[in-house]
Design brief:
Layout: H1 2-37, E1 42-48, E2 54-56, H2 69-72, E3 73-79, E4 84-89, E5 92-95, E6 101-109, E7 115-120, E8 127-130, E9 133-136, E10 141-148, E11 159-169, E12 176-185, E13 191-196, E14 199-202, E15 206-214, E16 220-227, E17 233-238, E18 241-244, E19 249-258, E20 268-278, E21 284-292, H3 306-329, H4 338-364, H5 372-399, E22 425-427, E23 442-445, E24 449-451, E25 455-461, E26 469-475, E27 478-486, E28 494-499, E29 507-514, E30 519-527
Parallel strand pairs: 5-12, 14-21, 24-30
Antiparallel strand pairs: 1-2, 1-3, 4-6, 6-10, 7-9, 7-11, 8-10, 11-12, 13-15, 15-19, 16-18, 16-20, 17-19, 20-21, 22-30, 23-25, 25-28, 26-27, 26-29, 29-30
């Protein structure tokens, strides 16, 4: 019986304990909510009479002079306040673009409450704070790290930049502190130059433009000059010197003309070289070409060549009939004057037109220069000779051979042309083919044949340093795929990979490298 009473008393005690614990928890939560809802407006401090330092309530010895506060202290009640103090070290630092420079920011809570401070560096996106917020007890100090990473970008100019580190109190956003320092951003140089076009066509003056982009972070100054190895050209460079700020471009106009001023009767290439000198950088060289073309003469309105053309046509018709009858009489040719008569017409027309051209040239007073009639005659003769070859080939294939006998087997005119052989060529400054040698640049492919879409490695050697090289895949003047540009290294060599275009024709193609001075063709067989 006694054990049962004792057990019941224990259960009663446990129940009362649980009830009291619950009430205590509820009271604590309510008190915490009321405490958060009502910020503390005052706080107690003990002022040391010896040094004047304000110590938190309950302090026994002064935090400043270590005096015994029971004898030298005076208790006082002050209003709560927020405060912050900053110290930034070092006050200046030099950082190169792309590198990292570190600063140390010390934050001290000079207020009377526990506070958090938000740290920031306005208007400098490439400076980072770690951490970006600090929580401190009154009078305590903590540190944050500032990493400065100026990018390699023209938007960040070289020179000194003043920045401000700022700390703002969360307890009172009106309370903040700022500290300034200086970062010196180093210089870096990067420029890109272009010559447009690389090849110009003109009767006397070829126009080119040299464009220089300043991709560095400080002003760029330089000059442009042009030379030609044969000293047969004159150049006008406007302006000869240029300047551009960070992120800006400069343009220089280049006019190229023959120094003797003479006209030409056929396309004549003139090679030259442009050198761009930028202060503090290596010179950039470009190989350009000015192709001088003949002037297009205008026929004089008072000349009427139609009468001469009519007389020449009548004479040619009579000669054609006579030659055909004579050849048929002597059994040299069957009475089919298709190709033989066309050949005779071409020769006779050539003779008549040359006579007319020389007559017109003498009348015009220009001596050896061809007259408008001569130029028109040259074009008509070329077309007639081409027509003569086509008609003669067709006639010979139908007749079989000269004469009235049976066709000759395996005649050259009826045989099938052999499959062309892929060959490589190198052409020099005057357009003539040049044999390989130690002074002649060369290109080579990793394989002699490739399929469509296959990657081929192209190597080059013997080129002039820093020369821009245009790489294309072509056949008979037709280009396939996108053009590539490469620049050889200091030894004049380069390595470039390219993919054979999916629409490249099968058979013998050529990988062509052009520098404005050399044209190198490397044979490449494209297989299915």
């Amino acid at each position: 019986m006694r054990d049962k009473r004792y057990s019941g008393s224990c259960e009663m005690v446990e129940l009362v304990s649980v009830i009291l614990s619950g009430c205590s928890t509820a009271f604590a939560l309510a008190h915490h909510r009321n405490k958060r809802a009502r910020p503390v407006q005052n706080w107690a401090v003990i002022i040391c009479k010896k040094c004047g330092h304000k110590n938190p309530d309950g302090t026994t010895f002064c935090e400043s002079c270590k005096a015994f506060l029971e004898w030298t202290g005076e208790r006082a009640v002050e209003a709560t306040k927020a405060g912050v103090k900053l110290l930034l070290v070092p006050t200046s630092r030099t950082v190169e673009p792309g590198a990292v420079g570190t600063f140390e920011l010390s934050v001290q809570n000079t207020g009377s409450v526990v506070d958090s401070f938000v740290l920031e560096i306005p208007d400098v996106p490439w400076m980072a704070l770690d951490p970006a917020e600090l929580s401190l007890f009154p009078g305590k100090t903590s540190k944050a790290r500032i990493d400065a990473r100026p990018p390699r970008d023209p938007a960040v100019p070289a020179g000194q930049l003043r920045f401000t580190a700022k700390a703002t109190s969360r307890a009172d956003p009106h309370i903040s502190a700022e500290e300034m320092a200086v970062i010196s951003v180093g210089e870096f140089m990067e420029n890109v130059a272009r010559l447009v076009p690389l090849t110009s066509r003109a009767t006397q003056v070829g126009s080119h433009t040299v464009t220089i982009d300043n991709r560095g972070n400080h002003p760029m100054r330089g000059s442009v000059r042009a030379t030609d190895p044969d000293a047969t050209l004159a150049f006008d460079v406007v302006p000869q010197t240029f300047s551009a700020g960070p992120g800006e471009s400069a343009s220089v106009q280049l006019a190229v003309r023959p120094s003797d001023g003479r006209a030409v009767t056929q396309d004549t290439p003139h090679r030259f070289q442009v050198q761009v000198d930028v202060a503090g950088a290596s010179p950039v060289l470009f190989d350009g070409t000015m192709i001088q073309v003949p002037e297009v003469a205008v026929a004089r309105p008072h000349r009427r060549p139609w009468g001469r053309w009519a007389v020449a046509a009548a004479v040619l018709l009579l000669l054609e009939v006579g030659c055909a009858l004579a050849l048929s009489y002597f059994r040299i040719m069957a009475p089919r004057p298709s190709w033989a008569a066309a050949t005779i017409i071409g020769v006779l027309l050539l003779t008549v037109e040359v006579a007319l051209a020389r007559t017109g040239g003498a009348d015009s007073g220009r001596g050896r220069h061809a007259s408008p009639i001569g130029r028109a005659a040259a074009l008509s003769i070329a077309a007639l000779l081409l027509l003569t070859g086509v008609v003669g080939y067709a006639a010979n294939a139908n007749v079989g051979a000269i004469g009235s006998g049976p066709p000759i087997a395996n005649s050259p005119s009826s045989s099938v042309s052999p499959t062309p052989v892929c060959q490589s060529h190198t052409y020099g400054p005057n357009g003539a083919e040049v044999a390989p040698g130690p002074d002649v640049p060369a290109i080579n492919t990793s394989i002699g044949g490739a399929t469509r879409g296959q990657t081929v490695q192209l190597t080059g050697s013997g080129f002039q340093t820093y020369t821009h090289i245009l790489i294309e895949l072509e056949r008979a003047g037709n280009h396939w795929g996108a053009a590539l540009y490469v620049t050889p290294d200091a030894s004049g060599a380069f390595v470039k990979q390219f993919a054979v275009p999916a629409d490249a024709p099968l058979g013998c193609d050529a990988v062509v490298a052009r520098t404005g001075y050399w044209v190198i063709e490397q044979a490449l067989t494209v297989r299915a």
